[in-house]
């Protein structure tokens, strides 16, 4: 679903990503780990088409990202660390607005509620202004927007940063559930515990290179930590 072939990004003299080769299959939850500046966000940005590679290709479902920008925007959804929503609109109204922007105007109220439910938002919260929401609740609306537009891949940057343990647990469960339904998930994170909990595979990045990938089922929490530290 997501494929990088010799993918590189240079900023002036600095090689932020150095020839990444990677395949993430449908239904995987792939967690990019690594120190600050390792190249995790750069990788996400290249798959999203936000930046242009210096060399190589990022592909989504076999399509090169920059040459197929409109189709890739439909297939891939980005959930940033801070999901930007309209604070005076309710969760349901935000979803209606962003769905309309994505080409689905006038979605029935019940349909909007179903997407929000699939993203884990409690029914009693759906008609409250988003300004009253916690970070985890805003994230759920962000995920509902992605689901409603029919995204096949979800890219998240630091999704558990600033979430309390309960909200982090809920997010882990949600991502695993979505991946079980065929969604491809790629996230950049510093949260090793959550990477083990929600990831099917981890990739450790160092100075612009992917130095190791491992299925999470092969690793205990302590082993993942040791693996991570070995590469720092
Ligand atoms: P963090 O965990 O801090 O988010 P990261 O692994 O996501 O780090 P990137 O944000 O991908 O790292 O950055 C990789 C390298 O590229 C860093 O050295 C960063 O300073 C550099 N970089 C990123 N964006 C730019 C830019 N727009 N201009 C110049 N250098 C950049």
TrEMBL record:
Keywords: ATP-binding, Nucleotide-binding, Transport. Residues 2-232 form the ABC transporter domain. It comes from the Bacteria. GO terms for molecular function: ATP binding. It holds the Pfam family ABC_tran. This is ABC transporter ATP-binding protein. It comes from Hyalangium rubrum.
């Amino acid at each position: 679903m997501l494929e990088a072939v010799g993918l590189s990004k240079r900023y002036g003299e600095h090689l932020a990503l150095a020839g990444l080769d990677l395949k993430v299959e449908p239904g995987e939850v792939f967690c990019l780990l690594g120190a600050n500046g390792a190249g995790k966000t750069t990788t996400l940005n290249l798959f999203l088409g936000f930046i242009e590679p210096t060399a190589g290709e990022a592909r989504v479902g076999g399509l090169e990202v920059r040459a197929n920008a409109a189709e890739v925007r439909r297939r891939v959804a980005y959930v940033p660390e801070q999901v930007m929503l309209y604070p005076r609109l309710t969760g349901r109204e935000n979803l209606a607005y962003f769905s309309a922007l994505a080409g689905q105007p006038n979605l029935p109220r019940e349909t909007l509620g179903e997407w929000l439910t699939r993203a884990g938002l409690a029914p009693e919260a759906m008609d409250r202004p988003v300004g009253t929401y916690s970070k985890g609740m805003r994230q759920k609306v962000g995920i509902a927007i992605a689901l409603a537009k029919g995204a096949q891949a979800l890219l998240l940057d630091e999704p558990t940063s600033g979430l309390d343990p309960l909200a982090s647990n809920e997010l882990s469960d949600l991502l695993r559930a979505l991946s079980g339904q065929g969604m491809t998930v790629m996230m950049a994170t510093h949260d090793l515990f959550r990477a083990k909990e929600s990831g099917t595979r981890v990739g450790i990045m160092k100075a612009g290179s992917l130095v190791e990938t491992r299925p999470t089922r092969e690793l205990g929490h302590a082993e993942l930590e040791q693996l991570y530290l070995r590469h720092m």
